[in-house]
Design goal:
two-stranded antiparallel ribbon, 2 domains, Rossmann fold, DNA polymerase, domain 1, 215 residues
Length: 215
């Protein structure tokens, strides 16, 4: 195994299961346009990618309409959806062990950064993370590659010492754009077909598998 120093974690679908909150937030946003989504596969597909991409890809929204939908999404999410969330079993213990071994941990998420910070604090995980980075309210720094690049530049990371861990193709693509290794978890919201198509360096089937990798 290569020697890593900096471990970047995606949030949704990797550390926590946010399905209920995201689905409810999407439905709330759609209701503002007199729409309702019946297909659970489409709703769960919102977990991970940038919201603007999902509203445009699934509903053909223009850029301006997608931005308005995001405002409605966040209206619900900041009040209720943010707490309709749960950690995957074993996450706090895994993070504790990685920190004890000397790894420096980060969150790299396409979620609004302030929401990501709130979620990490809600689950009392802030002591494990050196930094939490997400997208900005003005819609900038939304792609995973941009988020990883920002973190790496801010903390002057050596690409050879970095590993990105996520559950969707966006995490793998973002890692490749920044010339760092990546691992995918198969228990999140990316299908195994999606994961294998984008060929991460490692695949973890559980939090325990992930933990054992660093032991």
């Amino acid at each position: 195994m290569k020697v890593y120093k900096h471990i970047l974690f995606d949030l949704d679908g990797t550390l926590s299961d946010p399905k209920q909150g995201i689905v409810n937030s999407v439905q709330y946003a759609l209701s503002k346009f007199d729409m309702k989504e019946q297909d659970d596969k489409i709703l769960t597909a919102f977990i991970g990618p940038p919201l603007i991409d999902s509203f445009q890809d699934f509903y053909g929204f223009s850029s301006d309409k997608a931005k308005l939908a995001i405002q409605y999404f966040r209206e619900y999410f900041k009040e209720k959806g943010i707490f309709e969330n749960k950690l995957f079993e074993g996450v706090p213990q895994m993070l504790y062990k990685l920190c004890k071994k000397g790894y420096i941990l980060y969150v790299a998420t396409s979620k609004l950064e302030s929401f990501a910070v709130q979620i990490i604090e809600h689950f009392h995980l802030q002591e494990y993370f050196f930094d939490v980075c997400g997208c900005l309210p003005d819609g900038s720094r939304v792609e995973k590659g941009e988020i990883i690049a920002y973190l790496m530049g801010k903390h002057q990371m050596n690409p050879k010492e970095c590993l990105m861990i996520g559950d969707r193709k966006h995490d793998i693509i973002g890692a490749r754009l920044n010339h760092i290794d990546c691992a995918a978890v198969s228990f999140g919201y990316g299908t195994i077909e999606e994961i294998k198509e984008y060929a991460p360096d490692y695949i973890f089937e559980s939090i325990l598998d992930l933990e054992k990798f660093f032991s």
